[in-house]
Amino acid sequence: MMSGIEGKVIAITGASSGIGEATALLLAERGAKVVLAARRSDRIEALAARITEAGGEAVPVVTDVKRREDLSRLVATARERYGKLDVLVSNAGISPISALDDLRVEDWEEMVDVNIKGVLYGIAEALPVFREQGFGHFVHTLSTAGLVIVPKMSVYAGTKNAVRAISEGLRQEAGEALRVTTISPGFTETELAHSITDPDAKSQIQDSMAKIAMPPNAIARAIAFAIEQPSGVDVGEIVVRPTAQS
After folding, report:
1. Which one is catalytic: 71, 156, 171, 213?
2. pLDDT at 1 over 70
């Protein structure tokens, strides 16, 4: 059974900052060939250059996870450049949280499009490739917001729990050859608060992050742990919280 990270081809969405960026750096340091996906071309090009200069291998692919064709191009790029795809880390996500009474329907729709449909598009593009190869690993970034539901986070939590259910169904359908892992981070130093349109909710989240947030590398290490296991070992779910988080 194959194990470890060295030599694996790993595509990461949301790679331009936060958890995605930290994961790309850590996996590349451990010998993975990383395919960096995000909308901000300048960010992923700079990250790819940084990895390459450090002796690693990386290729940037401008990707909007709301567009299935972008996920298709991401998977195709990995295969064309490196001949395979071992892991798809679906990490891109947004959290424009607000009270339901505010009726920020456009924010709800955006969360569904990015947080749920973006993951489904990744599955749609990578699953046939994994079947053809006879190996593959899906890693989906969720949130502890889906474990403890609190006011203003109901829609965001709903999107994360939808992906939790989809991931469990995928795991059961995957068979012996494929692996599925979900990672649920607690408060982490990321740019997630930037997508919040409600000023009070944004301030509250930023204050909590400033007080107790973990560095994104903590989540990157959890992702690396799941990936490095032998191929017959499937790490189903990892929850990582700051010790100060209730």
Report:
1. 156
2. no
The SS3 assignment for 91 reads coil
Secondary structure (DSSP) of 136-192: EEEEEE--GGGTS--TT-HHHHHHHHHHHHHHHHHHHHH-SSEEEEEEEE-SBSSSG
Q: Is 121 known to be catalytic?
A: no
pLDDT tens column, 46-93: 999 999 999 999 999 999 999 999 999 999 999 999 999 999 999 999
| Pairwise CA distance, residues 240 & 177, whole Å | 27
Claim: this prediction has a pTM higher than 0.70: yes
| Residues 75 and 11 sit within 8 Å (Cβ to Cβ) | yes
Residue 142's φ and ψ, nearest 5 degrees, are -105, -135
The full set of domains in the chain, from first to last, is 9-240 (3.40.50.720)
